[in-house]
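Support reply, case 0932

Customer input (verbatim):
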Amino acid sequence: SLTWEKIYFAKALAFLAEKESPPGLQVILGLTRRGADECQARRIYALHAILGHVPIPDEARRVSSDDVDPAFASAQRAVRQVASSVIEDTKDAAFKTTFLEPTKMYHRAVGDGTMEGDTEVHGANTYLAVLLACLGVQLNRLPYLSDETKGVADF
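Our regenerated output:
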């Protein structure tokens, strides 16, 4: 079960309950329910997915400087936010294209639906851990290092 993460999870859910659209809330609650019914890795996966829906407040991004024009600082923050979002989305898409989709296709081809279903959570943890340990590449989602190795393919 989640320990120190509970407070962040609760605050994220409270925020999203006020700000998210009804279809968005259905997705979030579905992730929460599935995580509660399954393994610790699925809970961590759900937590990261839910926290990814919570925007970072401008106050947390703000760098104080008395010499900077407020309009320029605002524009600079907007450009950084868009660039950061594009970079993170590109990293996530590359991860899915390089690791997750080929693994799911492999498991589908050999008729192993269980491992295909485990790829998004357990397989992703394995691939994320390898990228972080070997190359120092970190994505939005950190690997759950106590997870078991399954949902991967031996390419």
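We compared this against your earlier run and they match. Two observations from our side: The helical segments are 6-19, 22-37, 40-51, 58-61, 70-109, 113-135. The CA atoms of residues 71 and 77 lie 10 Å apart. Please reopen the case if you see a mismatch on your end.
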